[in-house]
Amino acid sequence: MNRITDSATAQAAPPRRPSRTARLRDPSRPRIHRAWIVAAVTFVTIIGGAAFNSLPGLLIDPLHTEFGWSRGEIGLAVSIDMALYGLTAPFAAALMDRFGIRRVVAVALSAVAAGALASVWMTAAWQLMLYWGLLVGLGTGSMAMAFSATVTHRWFVARRGLVTGILTAAGASGQLVFLPLCAWIVDGHGWRPASVTVALAALVVVPFVWLLMRDHPADVGLAPYGGAYVEKPAPAKGAARRAVRVLADAARTGPFWLLAGTFAICGASTNGLIRTHFVPSAHDHGMPITAAASLLAVVGVFDVIGTIFSGWLTDRFDARRLLALYYALRGVSLLFLPMLLAPAVHPPMVFFIVFYGLDWVATVPPTLALCREQYGEDSAIVFGWVLASHQVGAALVAFLGGVARDAFGSYDVVWYAAGAMCATAALMALVIRRPRAVAA
């Protein structure tokens, strides 16, 4: 009798309305997963922060002409920016765990805007190092690839390689948008309006970050894309200590040093060399600044394609072999570059630009995949330290490239040295050992 009564009561009772959290986690709801919205905001944020990276190569000659500063001095300011960009990244990843992505990124964008805007009134080389080096370096470093790694790790389980490639391509997209624009402004109106443009670009992104970015899928009652729902962890305390501890643990392993070494060479041969010194080197051969900047913008076009395709490949092939292939091909291309520079753009130079664009940051998805494979939950912070080595390599070449130009009157020796370093990176990638569980 009780069973009949209970059954009748259950049938008569109205269905219980699911909670808001359950509704948000309902996989049958026909809407775009919030992870893709967060990824889109991250993409736009990186573009806004990357606007400044379009400037250094364009301003070396104007600053040298106006203030009489040597290319070595200007290169030193750029190298400070790049070094801080890298060294800030692992602490920024830990700070995002402690204070949230939105707060850290909003402050970082404001720092970039402040540094770019303050440089309009500079009159001494030390101010260049303070504004470009310190403020912009700290700001862009907080939105470095560790930012992408944190977003990807929290919001995605499926399609991580693809999303990593898309977010990595955001930096190249910023270059694509801002390089031609800034080159046109510098050529027609001077370098100061270009610096103001970069400041405004950073500020415009702040409202999007604050309104649309969320720190964790649990904040909106969702599971990560392609994964199971997990509760948001408590804010991590001791962010700086954690970053240092993770570095100390990773430094005891061989793969960390191989990944850091290959990525240092990656930074030296991209940000430090091509992004900083390609335009003045082409100008040395009689090519107009606007034409050289347009070539770099084309690099940005193919960088987007190459990076996304590299993410797709990383989901399917051995990341170590991909890295070796990328570095070997890059090294060969750099050995030919001194023979391609000329007053006018010709087909072999276009081929170099297309090829280098496809290879530019194609190294990021497999490098990040290897960090995840080796270091698990600490992978975002480990990748931040690996990125620091990338920027240290870039900083050294940004400075030494300017010194070499002052000393030899040419960049040729720098191109050849970078080609040899890329060959070394290819060999280093091949000897990275996979974890035993993965190898089995």
Automatic annotation (TrEMBL):
Membrane spanning residue stretches: 35-54, 74-95, 104-124, 130-150, 162-186, 192-213, 255-274, 286-312, 324-344, 350-370, 382-401, 413-432
Keywords: Membrane, Transmembrane, Transmembrane helix
Protein's organism: Streptomyces halstedii
Keyword DNA damage on entry: no
Intracellular or extracellular location(s): Cell membrane
Entry superkingdom: Bacteria
Classification via InterPro entries: MFS (IPR011701), MFS_dom (IPR020846), MFS_trans_sf (IPR036259), Proton-linked_MCT (IPR050327)
Keyword Kinase included in the entry's annotation: no
Domain Major facilitator superfamily (MFS) profile residues, every copy: 37-437
Principal place of residence: membrane
Name the UniProt record assigns to this protein: MFS transporter
Membrane topology: Multi-pass membrane protein
Chain positions covered by the region annotation Disordered: 1-27
Short name of any one Pfam family annotated for the protein: MFS_1
